[in-house]
Amino acid sequence: MKEIDLGKGNINKLLLSFSIPCVVSMLINSIYNIVDQIFIGQGVGTLGNAATNVIFPLVIVFNAVASLIGNGAAANLSLKLGEKNEKDAAKGVGQALMLTTIVSVLLGVFSYIAMPKLVMLFGCTENVYKYAVEYGRIICIGAPFMIIYSSLSNIIRADGSPKYAMILLVIGAIINIILDPIFIFVFNKGVAGGAIATVIGQFVSFLLAIFYMKKFKSVKLNKQSLKIDKDIFRVLGLGLSSFITQCTVLVLFVFMNNMMTKLGAQSKFGADIPLSVYGVISKINSIYISIVLGVSIGAQPIIGFNYGAGNKERVKETIKRVLIINLIIGIIFNVIFFFFPKQLAGIFIKSGDPSYELFIEFAVLMCHSFYMVMGLNAFEMTGSITIQALGKVKKATAFSFIRQIILLIPISLLLSLVFNKGIYGIAYAGCISDLLCFIIAIFIVKSEFVSLSKKDYTNKENTEVKTVDYTGNHIVITISREYASGGRYVGKLLAEKLGINFYDKELIDLASKESGLSNKYIEETDEQSRKTENDDRIFIAETKVIKDLAEKESCVIVGRCADYILKDNANVLKVFLYSDEKNKFERGTKYYGLNPKTASKEIDKINKDREKHYKFYTNRDWKDFSNYDIIMNVDLLGVEKTADYIKSVVNGDGPF
Asked: Beta partners for 476?
């Protein structure tokens, strides 16, 4: 493969190469649902379309589970391969495969049995009930196939086969498109025919995904790697972000379905038509969302790499281009929705259907109100993903909540129930929330640009580590310490007393050389609880540096999970240093310049971040003292005598 230079390559070409596969993959998921709606709408009518819309929340649940396990396993695979830890990499994949199989079967069985109650929860009406249950139960039979292949497609992509992952999705979609009219019109199976076609397509994708497991490139799977243990929780943690995002979509969809049926029943449209139209229009809107998200996700590696490398102007330029591209896409779709609502809705219903006129009328209402300024959504979606690429996961997650949860639901309730606007209140809540979200997004994205301009991410001159003379036995001492415990100073004094090198901030320069990320960026993200692709690169780089140092020389290494990284090395003394709250407070305010009013909270937060960081990368508890050889309260002897005590242990003199 031709090497891709994220730091210097043409931005437009990079965006094309990264975004197109993402767009195609996301569009395939949208097509699955849209094709069913088109053929079912033509073959069954409004009630059939409403039925597929009622079942769609269940599809979201299946996708959320697949994302949780699949994205988590894919991220874990990349991380462990970077660490050259093939055993744990294989274990992560094997556990994900086994867990996906178990969960998908249980979820499918539960959903099948509980279908009558689930459809009512999802906003089903009396007229739609039998169609929804019939369609939903067949979809549940295919749930294991869908969840497993969706989960595995992420892992296959991480294994270095993005084309194969895309092909297995495309083939399933094509089969679905071919079989839909055959089962619906030729065999006259109605909604059941659409569901059967979908399941067959999913089954073929499933077979292709399972077949790939036999020729996995990066790791070899065996029976041992399929055993599930507590390590699976770490893998799931890596996929939690996408799972939460899917859950917000689920909440919104269930809310909207119920509001459409409840308020629609009080209008001339009735309960079934609004439910059906909302499903149809939202599925068309999913094409727009897929393209915008695909472009944005494709830009993430470019933004993340250059942000970490300190190329702030290149970061800003990439974000600008993505925003412009997506806003143009948004405007195009906005124009289509506004000027051609009858044509769009007409694809999903026969002209001779008794509810045709009201169906089209409500579709026009939705396109001219709920989706009136939908093009502005591109700014919010792009902003959320680019902020995530900058490592600000919490801010990005909150950003994505703004429209769906924080704005749309309260505004809908306010207009429809408080101001008694009924179904029209829901319709206009969409454009109001879009407009407000756009204004908020402008301020958030602008603040990020200002922040980028202020920060200096240029590399510092690398400090040379001084080589010292040491004639004793080879020894590496790892120091894990609470913030403000004085542990760092103990380590520094210990290194001086032993005559060996001391590594703390010095590791930043070495990791910068190893990873290509800037010193400043590594320093800001070091040992924080944030989780990004670049954070994994930092950990992998620091792991390599620590292992190399431990092999080459005797030294003292502070933090960076060094005790875990060197757990299998001989001649390693693992130390944990702590202090009581009073002394930590005094050190924090006296030596670290902390505000006395907030010092205790800040110290506690930093220690919790260290604990989360350690747990995330080691799956062990930071304060589990069985991980260490020496555990000391620095306050007992003071900083200097604590260093003397550890030195005596190293020299074999015993306690002084």
From this structure: 555, 572
Which residue segment(s) compose the domain that 517 sits in? 476-651
- Confirm if 36 and 66 have CB atoms less than 8 A apart: no
**What would the 3-class secondary structure string for 83-149 be?**
CCCHHHHHHHHHHHHHHHHHHHHHHHHHHHHHHHHHHHHCCCCCCCHHHHHHHHHHHHHCHHHHHHH
Model-level pTM? 0.74
Does residue 235 or residue 547 have the better pLDDT? Answer: 547
Q: Which of 425, 457, 489 is the last residue of a domain?
A: 457
12, 321 Cβ separation under 8 angstroms: yes
d(CA 260, CA 362): 11
Tokens of 464: 């040379």
Residue 278 has which token pair? 């909302």
Assign 83 a pLDDT band (cuts: 50, 70, 90).
low
7 lies in some domain: no
DSSP state of 461: P
* pLDDT band with cut points at 50, 70 and 90 for residue 355: very high
Residues 502 and 402 in one domain: no
pLDDT digits (tens, 9 = 90+) for 31-67: 777 887 889 989 998 999 999 999 999 999 999 999 8
Q: Where are the alpha helices (DSSP H) in 502-638?
A: 506-515, 519-525, 533-552, 562-565, 581-590, 599-618, 634-637
